[in-house]
Amino acid sequence: MAQTPRSSRRRTPVEEASSPAPVVARSPSLKPETRHGILTVFVLTGAAVSALSIIGAAGLLGTYIAQALGTLFGWQRYIIPIYLAVLGIVLLFPERWHVATSRWAGFLLTLISSLALLQQFIPVADSFRQALAGRGGGYIGALLDYPLRSSLGPWAGGLILLGLFVAGLLIMLNTTLVNLLRQGNIAGRLLQSWRAWVWRRRLAKSIPQEEQNEADPEFKKKDIQDDDEDAEPSDEELDLVPIAPKPAKRVRRTISIPLDVLDGATSQPTSGNIEDNKTKIQRTLQNFGINVEMGEIHVGPTVTQYTLKPAEGVKLSQITGLNNDLALALAAHPIRIEAPIPGKSLVGIEVPNKSVATVRLREILASDIFRQRQSNLTFSIGKDVSGQPAIANLDPLPHLLIAGATGSGKSVMVNGLIISLLYSNSPDDLKFILVDPKRVELSVYNGIPHLLTPVITDTTKTINALRWVVGEMDRRYSILSQAGKRNIGSYRQDNGLDMPYIVLIIDELADLMSVAANEVEGAIVRLAQMARAVGIHLVLATQRPSVDVITGLIKANVTARMAFNVASQIDSRTILDSSGAEKLLGKGDLLFISAELSKPKRFQGAYVSEQEVERVVQFLKARAQPDYMNDIVDKPSPALGQSLEDLGDDELLAESKEVIIQAGKASASLLQRRLRVGYARAARILDLLEKEGFIGPGEGAKPREVFGEQVGLGTDQASEPQATSAGTSDEEDPESGARDENPDDADAPPDHA
């Protein structure tokens, strides 16, 4: 079979360029996660081998490794394996231990300067020979120490090295010099705490029970009043007791709740591939023509915040408008864009973590920020998006609104607030009034010594309690005025036990507003406007964030608000006056805003379980009994015997009755003309008179009946019973001629035939 001869013609350059390139098999490149894992294995293996070499358990090669470590690091070779092990752990959990490059630089500066400081113990003339022998700071320390000591002397050179060491610590810990000095005292404080614990254990049997309730040093209540137990209270002090009559002598009760009652941390967050998400964010923005420079990454318990700095000329609205596009690229929903981050020229993109960490209340109460609190009204919020503990002070807030959908973490936050205040305050410093219309959330606190009255579940008793609190507020103002004090803080410096703080907590505001909206709103508004100076604070919680529950007056006077997950942007705006709460993840994820914050800030609320609450309550019950005031809910305050909305109308009631009896009829326009008041007040007076039975109900255009003398409320000017129809002729009331011109007056009598 003949073969076709191959053409001997050479291919032109154009044909060579257009022909496909030969396919070369390439080995697949390693994934970033694989390279990262290999590095982690090498570092951890190096830590183990170096440790075995130093203790002589790695054979001949281990001996050489130990000599090399001694030559390089001197006496510090013994802790090099620890450094490597810590580095390996950081590499093993990058989403939990994301360390910025600047902190690595600080660590290297600290390490090198510490080696040079160790070399200070070696004579300068023999520095390198001793370093090669594995003494001092090794060869690395000698390279830095020798020039400094040779040119500046030991003192000046040592000060420079010490300065470099401290600077490295500041960079590595990302803290200030003041905080560094404060943290340096931790060991001393722990030793002092241990010695105090041993002393208390030895003397526990010889100390009376009431004297054993000493606070631990880390949770010692901040004394903000005079605790002179031998001082005999004066008669004037006995007359100024706001809560209950006090005995001849009062001893301040202190109850220290141990942290062991609460559960510790149980989980860590998982944010996924941080570097991959960082690249996706930058690439997605570039696809839409937005150039950004990526910044730090903060891994929080619920979300991971990626910070970025837009290029000049980029509008923030361009970035916020790409919310859905970024969510699609990251395969995460929902994401929240904070533009800009308050106090920074950065934009934050908050991406939900793969797994959410539970923030325990114990973590916050044991943190330095809570132990160094400036007020005993400080309570736990949780952790911010960077994982730092967050607290708030109820004193400057001074009231708090908590709202969110069912199951979003609202009741857990209320429990966390109560437990935080119980940890910080004795029963003589703080009193609670707890309102729980749902009957299942706060009833567990019945019996603790901090309660003024048992947990209130009845609406009528709640209204009586609101009246009592308003009356207590007025009475405290009178006390401060007589004492010449401006607020409760200055008064308590001289009379600490006489005026405790009062925190009124309403767990479901919507239930009360649906029954007695006007009265409840009036009391809340008045307390919110005036109660701070006398130490009365409100905490309002609701799961129905609608405008008929969170009214404009309540929002105007309660500026500190917490919003948990809600169903719509409208609900978010009702709570915060801004959107964002509809994008929260639930389970304690919240936005918090106060007068000090320019825009809402995101936190993961601290979790406290029912079992933990029960343990705290049982601990308190076993050490003190409550001193209830039953008159708070059994009867209204004498100063507020009438409905709160009708205050200020009493002085016109008697005059209104006289006008109605003289005219023989009752209408709003009649009272407007005779009493010279507005329509709203005249109509309110008619409602009061109808409630008393003085007049009959309005029935459209039909006249109201007057029952003055039938109920014994008539005056001497009424010469005959007034239980007749109010349809008297206009001759009895010359001014009533104008009524016929207003056919829409519901209280006007009909024309006579």
How many individual domains? 4
CATH superfamily of the largest domain: P-loop containing nucleotide triphosphate hydrolases
Number of DSSP helical runs = 26
What is the gyration radius calculated from CA atoms?
38 Å
End-to-end C-alpha gap? 133 Å
Shape: elongated
Classified by CATH, the class of the largest domain is: Alpha Beta
SS class: alpha/beta
Query: In total, how many beta strands?
Result: 13
- Give me the CATH architecture of the largest domain, please: 3-Layer(aba) Sandwich
The percent of residues in helical segments reads: 40-55%
Average residue-wise pLDDT? 77
Largest sheet: 9 strands, mixed
Across the major sheet, the strand order is: 6-5-13-12-11-7-10-9-8
CATH topology of the largest domain, anyone?
Rossmann fold
Topology overview:
Blueprint: H1 13-18, H2 32-54, H3 59-73, H4 80-92, H5 101-119, H6 127-132, H7 138-173, H8 177-183, H9 186-203, H10 235-239, H11 274-287, E1 292-299, E2 303-310, H12 316-320, H13 323-330, E3 336-338, E4 347-352, H14 361-365, H15 368-371, E5 378-384, E6 389-393, E7 400-403, H16 410-424, E8 430-435, H17 459-483, H18 488-492, E9 501-506, H19 509-530, E10 536-542, H20 552-557, E11 560-563, H21 569-576, E12 589-593, E13 601-605, H22 610-621, H23 631-634, H24 650-663, H25 668-675, H26 679-692
Parallel strand pairs: 7-10, 7-11, 8-9, 9-10
Antiparallel strand pairs: 1-2, 2-4, 3-4, 5-6, 5-13, 11-12, 12-13
Helix pairs in contact: 2-3, 2-4, 3-7, 5-7, 11-13, 17-19, 24-25, 25-26
